[in-house]
Amino acid sequence: MICAPVFGYLGDRYNRKLLMAFGVFLWSLTTFVGSYMNDYYLFLFFRSLVGVGEASYSTIAPTIISDMFVKDLRSKMLALFYFAIPVGSGLGYIIGSGTARILGTWHWGLRVTPLLGMLAVLMILVFMEEPERGQCEGFSHLTTTSWSEDIMLLTRNQSFMLSTAGFTCVAFVTGSLAWWGPNIMWQGLKMQKGYENVEPNSVALNFGIIAMAAGLIGVPLGSYLSQRLKVRYPKADPLICAGGLLISAPLLFLGLALADKCYYPVLVLIFIGQIALNLNWSIVADILLYVVSPNRRSTAEAFQILISHSFGDAGSPYLIGVISEMLKNFFKKSNIPLLLASVTSLSNNSLQIADVKDNKNNFQSLQYALFISIIVEVLGAIFFFFAAHHIVKDKELAETETPADNEQDTVQNRYPADETRLRGHSNPHFVA
């Protein structure tokens, strides 16, 4: 999160291919080395370095895709790129728990990823060719502005800021569900008759499969809807994002509310709710790329990562946990007579009642805390509705923006916008 702005600055000015290869290499190496650390602080240090590597890749990779493809094809490629997030998260539950179970230690769950990471580094270095910034959109030889000017222009870009705020809400919900979803499902399931001895790993496995399947369906579905609707409705992208959140909110609410009463219907509700939530991933990325000028897209990606992680998935699991503990203490204080009875009486019946009540308190405290995610989803939808009001204007500004050039007149001052892009595309010596 902290290093994303650094790589955003570098990604707008230096070789992105080498920066990405370095990031994935660092990511893989520190994951592998960290798995051998027995000291907590050393383990924490290497796990933190994993984030440094991830910051470089996730900040720069979308901007390279934007310079290789345009319009609908770019939306498709972004969908292909971004469904890796929910799919990878789902595979994390499955492969991580499976590897740990087979080899008898959780350490090997961290040693699978580095092998694939090193393969990715080789593929980046050998097969990847870095495109010129803005080349597919007809821009050529773009000049960079200062980092402070980039930030100032981004903060004035209302579509970018509002879509970033909406995406932060998506990250908040995704983070809280990824952390607490399997737990709330397990606690609710073991309160149901016949599932008292259910294992947490089996519930986590099912939750991971649901998350992965929802990503496989939701991310490309969002891209498909965007491509079909954007032709007639220029404001379609933020409206799809808002609609996805408004559909997801009641479904996830019902899934959480019924988690202690039924199992398979709850899985269906959470599955459909996550599909609606995943509509946002590729669309938000596409919004960023077409409302921001090519010469500051890496900085924009970094800014969005910084904000969405800071106020989204980095803090939501902790916040939900704190609120859950507060509610748990409140519930316990309101049931003092029952707790005293369980302590003073040695009867199995009394102890069993107290144990059931304690399980219910634990479940309900976490359940009510997770309801906050539903409120955040509605708030995110509001941000996207406001973004729809500015999206057309900001897209036009990004398409016609010309970097400052004090030495000569720019082509934009001499040709209409459409003609400029055509000339810039056909002649690399033109400055768009």
Strand composition percent = under 5%
- Provide the low-confidence segments as ranges: 336-348, 350-354, 402-432
CATH homologous superfamily name of the largest domain? Answer: MFS general substrate transporter like domains
Q: What number is the mean pLDDT?
A: 80
Name of the CATH architecture of the largest domain? Up-down Bundle
Largest sheet: none
Structural class: mainly alpha
Q: Any idea what the radius of gyration is? A: 24 Å
Please sum up the structure shown.
By secondary structure, the protein is mostly helical. The chain has helices at 4-11, 16-34, 40-68, 71-82, 84-103, 113-127, 147-156, 158-189, 200-229, 236-257, 264-278, 280-291, 297-313, 316-333, 336-344, 348-400, 417-426. Residues 1-392 form the Major facilitator superfamily (MFS) profile domain.
What labels would you give this structure?
single chain, 432 residues, mainly alpha, Growth Hormone, Chain: A, 17 helices, 77% helix, disordered C terminus
Structural write-up:
The chain folds into two domains: 398 residues, Growth Hormone, Chain: A (Up-down Bundle); 29 residues, no CATH class. Helix content is 77%, strand content 0%. It is mainly α and 432 residues long. Helix 10 runs antiparallel to helix 12. The protein has 17 helices and no strands. The two termini are 33 Å apart.
